[in-house]
Every structure is written in C-alpha cells, then in structure tokens.
Amino acid sequence: MLPPIANRFVAGETAAAAFDHTRSMNDDGIGVLLNLLGEHHGDPVDVETDMRAYRQLVRDVSRADLDACVSVKPSQIGLDVSEELFARNYRSLVAHAADHDVFVWCDMEDSDTTDVTLDTFVDVARDHPWTVGQCLQSNLKRTRADLERVVDVPGAIRIVKGAYDEPASIAYTEKSRVNEAYRDDIAFLFEHRDRGIAVGSHDPAMVSLARRLGEEHGTDYEVQMLMGVRMDAQRDLAAQGVDVRQYVPYGGKWLSYFYRRVRERKGNALFALRAILGR
Ligand code: FAD
C-alpha cells in the first residue's frame, strides 16, 4: 500500500484509487491526466503489460462519467525496445482511445527521443484529429522550429520548460534563458493556434502570461500542473474559470517518481521530512 508520505504526489497503486482522486478533483472543477507510472521498459513483455493496462484504462475512463485523459511516456510504450514498437503502440493506443472518445497525451523524454516522438505525433494526429496531444520542451534550442512544424497539426500541444538535463550545445541551461524561451514559445502558440494549447507549469508568471494571452486572443487553453504541487492555486484558478488539468500518476512504481518530486524542490523535501517526523 502507498505510504501516506507519497500520496501527496501519487494517487495510489491502482486505477481505482486514481479514479477516486479524479472524482474529488472533478468536484473542484479540475480535470485530470491519468499516468500509470512506468518508464524505460527494455523488455517487450513489460511494454505489453503497460499497453494492456492503458487500453483497459481507456475503456474505464470512457465508461466513467469523469473529466479525465490518459498520459503516456514514450519509453513506457516501447521506445527503449525499438522506434517501430513505440510508433505502433502510440498509433494503436490513440486509435483505441478515438474509438472510446478518450484523449491521449504523450510526454516528451530526453532529446535523443525528440525526433521519433514528434514524427509519430504528427502522423497519428493527422489520422486521429484532436484525439492526441504532445509535450514539447522550451529548454531545447530546436523547439521553436519544432513548434513551427507542428503548429498546424490537428493535435494539442503542451509546452513545458523541460525536465531533462541536456548539454549546452543543444539546450538553454541558464534558468533565465529557459524562462525567456518559454515565454516566447507560449506567445508563439497563442499567436498561431486557436485551440489545443496547454501550458504545463507551476510558475505564477507563466500562468499569468497564458491568462493574459488567452483573453487577448480569445483562445481556449488549459493550465496543467502536477498532483501535489500548488494545489490551492489549482483550485483557485479553476474557481476563476481557468481550465485546469492535473497530472495524476498512479501505480506500483511510485518510489522513483516520489523521490524526483522531493529532490527537485526544497519545500517538497521539507514536506517529506515533516511527514517522516509526523509533524
Ligand atoms: P519552475 O521553473 O520549476 O519554478 C518557477 C516558479 O514556479 C517557482 O519560482 C515557484 O514560484 C513556482 N513553483 C514551482 N514549483 C513549485 C512548487 N512545488 N511549489 C510551489 N511553487 C512552485 N517535462 C518534460 O521534460 N517532459 C514532459 O513531458 C513534462 N510533462 C509535464 C506535465 C505537466 C502537467 C507539468 C506541470 C510539467 C511537466 N514537465 C515535463 C516538467 C516541466 O518541464 C518542468 O520541469 C516543471 O514543470 C518545473 O517547471 P515550472 O514551469 O513548473 O516552474
């Protein structure tokens, strides 16, 4: 069972627990992205196990009266086995989701995976318009050109700052430069799209920018944040009429995800320490 210390960031070990969390978020006007924890599967058997779980999740989401999408990682659905397996699984999951009227998001992993992930997104979105969304990372210097390529593709785009350490030859490494690129990319999306924009950030300055541009351009957009991070802000934004969607991880492989959240921010580490000490 999930220890209480982890359940700030992870909904539970089962889809049923994630559905309970989804219901309570939906009651607060917040949609969710359900992510079965798992990545870097090198064995096709592990890939197929998670694919089966995702197909079942799609059917369960479709049957339940919930505001929920599904979110997958490339290396979870085959990319560490082969590009062909990844592309086949991405395509078949989105086709299955389209049959069940469920939306699928694909995360973006490190820069070695960007080309194949984007190529597959573009192909799949053209065959299943507005059923799939793809994450892009503003810390990569290539991203402006990638946005120009995908801006007319009928799929949603989640723009994030980028979570992977990348070399300075291909990525902005100074925080201020990443923020500048992120602002520019958000502005680019609002200038060139009239739907399918998601801003994945907890940064109040970036959320304000999205709100201002959304009003200026009259464009629908959503703000996406992680479960357990700025939960009050998520509720406040939803109460003010902003479309908010929360990334909700669940499953047995919660330990490494939990440590990543704790490591990335002092406040999270203090939270963990207080939970351990029972204060
Ligand atoms: P930061 O630059 O980390 O922080 C800026 C400001 O935001 C802080 O100064 C503070 O005011 C506020 N803030 C940030 N965190 C907290 C906190 N814990 N508590 C209180 N205030 C806080 N990255 C990828 O590479 N690939 C993906 O597919 C991907 N998907 C994502 C999906 C979602 C829904 C989200 C939210 C993020 C995703 N990321 C992904 C991670 C992303 O790239 C960033 O690493 C991460 O969001 C941190 O950047 P930030 O914009 O939230 O703010």
TrEMBL record:
It comes from the Archaea. Keywords: FAD, Flavoprotein, Nucleotide-binding, Oxidoreductase, Proline metabolism. Residues 21-271 form the Proline dehydrogenase domain. It is an enzyme of class 1 (oxidoreductase). Its cofactor is FAD. It catalyses: L-proline + a quinone = (S)-1-pyrroline-5-carboxylate + a quinol + H(+). InterPro entries: FAD-linked_oxidoreductase-like, PRODH_bac_arc, Proline_DH_dom, Proline_oxidase. SUPFAM superfamilies: FAD-linked oxidoreductase. GO terms for molecular function: nucleotide binding; proline dehydrogenase activity. Its EC number is 1.5.5.2. It holds the Pfam family Pro_dh. Pathway: Amino-acid degradation; L-proline degradation into L-glutamate; L-glutamate from L-proline: step 1/2. GO terms for biological process: L-proline catabolic process to L-glutamate. This is proline dehydrogenase. The lineage of its organism: Archaea, Methanobacteriati, Methanobacteriota, Stenosarchaea group, Halobacteria.
